[in-house]
């Protein structure tokens, strides 16, 4: 199958901008210079314009198969060697990651810059964003020197109610403000890091949603008071757990919200379900992390099931997603679930497969397929799932 771009002709759009700028320059000059100089300048400009047209159109046509790039958002928690390994990198590992990004010419952007580029639809290659969940004290204690050396922008998602309850575990507002001067933005991780989709006994759907809305907005207010300034509206779901009602609520309140399913943030990612790659523990190894940092966002238009939270009885589920097939061969897609590897079936542009033996708790299906135009790189898409126990709960 040939990879054919269906996007509007960017070459033409860019040429219009170039010609427009050149013409504006001619008219500006024309009013201020003598007649004979004006004619020769005009000729020169026409020649230059012709050269610009040849130069500008040539490579853009040759590059008509556009690879859809995205922003790879890395997710960290603790920095330390005496913290739970499953959510930790050591300071040395973090420094190795930062050095890798620098040596390989990655552009580390803030989430705000990432959001703007995604919204523009013109996402340059090699963009990475850095995030730290929970605001642990060790991020300040063990990360400060690394942050100072690299001056990369990064985002810390905090829980203001927990910070007030057990201050010894978390960074103070003063420490967070100090990190702000080395590139940090502080964002919302809910007030108390609860499982947000869990309803209380006897709570109606409307009461549950109102409680979540209050929690999200109270956390935002508390963190802006703590920081002494307005902070961008980014939200990380505790444990990466959400449902359609929560996603809709966050969009209503102008948040971009991040999960814990993996893949790059692309122009097709729903803004309240943005993926991130875990970069701690076994994922900190640069041998495998490098592949993820170089990955491309699979352009997915829609996915089933809509709700990552399954019923307790559901120990199997059919997953379907509609992908835009431009730069990969459907037959080369591989998916991975609980140590098993399989290939999805395809119906036109829709991939589908059934996963079985779904355990109680969180799990995720990852699908990857090689890019045709960029050798060694993979499109990546992940579907998060969570299956409750008989009481409608699951472990952290
Ligand atoms: Zn968290």
Question: Could you describe the 3D structure shown?
Answer:
- It is a single chain.
- This protein has helices at residues 10-30, 35-62, 91-103, 111-120, 137-150, 160-165, 173-180, 205-227, 244-252, 286-293; strands spanning 71-76, 78-79, 88-89, 107-108, 127-133, 154-158, 184-188, 234-236, 256-258, 277-278, 296-297, 300-304, 317-323, 334-337, 340-342, 345-347, 350-355, 361-370, 378-387.
- Strands 1, 4, 5, 6, 7 and 10 form a six-stranded parallel sheet that branches.
- Helix 1 runs antiparallel to helix 2 (35-62) and helix 8 (205-227) crosses helix 9 (244-252).
- The protein is built from ten helices and 19 strands.
- It is globular.
- It is 35% helix and 22% strand.
- The protein folds into three domains: 10-62, no CATH class; 71-294, Alpha-Beta Barrel (TIM Barrel); 298-396, Immunoglobulins (Immunoglobulin-like).
- The chain has 396 residues and is an alpha/beta fold.
- Keywords: Membrane, Signal, Transmembrane, Transmembrane helix.
- InterPro entries: Glyco_hydro/deAcase_b/a-brl (IPR011330), NODB_dom (IPR002509), Polysacch_Deacetylase (IPR051398).
- The chain crosses the membrane at residues 42-60.
- This is Polysaccharide deacetylase.
- Pfam families: Polysacc_deac_1 (PF01522).
